[in-house]
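Example record for the data management plan.
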Amino acid sequence: MANLITDSIDLPLDADGDLDVFAPLTSGLAGVAQSVRVRLLLFKGEWFANLDAGIPYLPRDGVTESEAILGQRFSDTKIRAAFRTAILSAPSVTSLPRLDVTFDAATRTLRVSWRAITTFGDTTDSLELAT
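Corresponding structural encoding:
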């Protein structure tokens, strides 16, 4: 299948999240899944080319303390909105039928899992963050 100019094509990430420059480029469903994961790991204000991209994890320029996720009282609504926006902003993601957010106060761990519908098929993934 030919790639469109809007398709996610990227260097793949290894299990540690580092670029794997020796592997073939990702595209199609794998490319979309990686694009979503990168968006969720990006701190809002971190990327100089688009300071609005990413999740408002910490207060900083462009992210008020009330918008920040970490260092605040757990807000399911705020976290869901931030992750939903980031996932749906990925190229080729058409809908997000499932987004689960759980916070374990004892271990201070946030776990987010989702199922996204893309133009290439469905993708599911999860992310665990220690606050």
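Summary line stored alongside the record: The longest strand covers residues 93-104.
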